[in-house]
Design a protein that fits this description.
Elements: E1 13-15, E2 20-25, H1 33-44, E3 48-52, H2 61-65, H3 69-84, E4 89-95, H4 97-106, E5 113-117, H5 132-138, E6 141-143, E7 163-165, H6 166-182, E8 190-195, H7 203-212, E9 218-223, H8 236-250
Parallel strand pairs: 2-3, 2-4, 4-5, 5-8, 8-9
Antiparallel strand pairs: 1-3, 6-7
Helix pairs in contact: 3-4, 4-6, 5-6
Length: 256
């Protein structure tokens, strides 16, 4: 097996801090870079932060095609176990598919809370979503739609695969089915966050997930001027502050 060459600036990261752990999980075809600014902010608040790289991501799309949804979920479980070695409690913080993984894991793992940003409820692919594995042999990739972003400086440029591997979209369909079954089982506090300008995951997903949660402590926030990648948009500092307040409110005992 060849040593994987991770895309520069897209490496996983770890910032040691206090006894409150934050596990940051990036999105579908994305990289830890989209979570890095948030990770640096939370580290500056004193928290211990781990930003993982999901299997098959940040290298080459062919690597992603060989992974399955449970590989991504097991990477989240591994992150939880790693943080348990240096923290007393862990918060899962995900973006897009990363938040779907966070919500799924929270139904089965002992975590203190979940922050779910721009979370898909299901893949909007019509009748084709049930045949994506077959379609992948004829059409191995689906082009991405590129939406304008207000904060488009070179430093803010997103690093991700330029297309969606069709075979991996089939895995996303199955993962979201697992998430939908998991939502009523979640008992820890949850904060859902969504940008009103998100053209990848619409606010209908946001409301459906909110309604599906049975946990007593569930909160929601909408951001007027944000798109899909809340962690790198113009309102990111409002997002970061809200996440920090959520963690401080729900860390057990209110201790570090």
């Amino acid at each position: 097996m060849n040593y994987p060459i991770v895309t520069p600036t897209a490496e996983p990261f770890f910032f040691p801090g206090n006894r409150t752990g934050c596990l940051l999980i990036h999105g579908f075809t994305g990289t830890p870079k989209e979570m890095r600014w948030l990770g640096e902010y939370l580290s500056n608040q004193g928290f211990t932060v781990l930003g993982i790289r999901l299997p098959g991501h940040a290298t080459h799309p062919d690597d992603m095609v060989r992974t399955r949804w449970w590989d991504w979920l097991n990477a989240v479980y591994d992150g939880i176990h790693l943080l348990h070695n240096s923290t007393d409690h862990t918060f899962l913080i995900g973006l897009s598919m990363g938040s779907s993984l966070a919500l799924t894991a929270a139904a089965h793992a002992p975590v203190a809370g979940v922050v779910a940003m721009s979370t898909p409820y299901e893949v909007n692919a019509g009748w084709q979503k049930n045949f994506l594995r077959l379609i992948s042999h004829l059409r191995p990739a689906v082009p991405k739609k590129h939406y304008p972003v207000s904060n488009s400086s070179p430093r803010n440029q997103q690093v991700s695969y330029p297309f969606y591997p069709t075979r991996s979209l089939a895995e996303l369909v199955d993962l979201l089915a697992e998430m939908r079954q998991s939502l009523p089982k979640i008992q820890c506090p949850v904060l859902l966050m969504q940008g009103k300008m998100d053209q990848t995951v619409t606010t209908e997903n946001f409301q459906t997930i909110l309604n599906s949660l049975n946990t007593v402590e569930k909160h929601s926030m909408l951001f007027e001027n944000s798109g899909h990648v809340l962690t790198r948009g113009d309102e990111r500092f409002e997002v970061f502050k809200a996440i920090t307040n959520f963690i401080r409110n729900y860390r057990p005992g209110g201790i570090n």
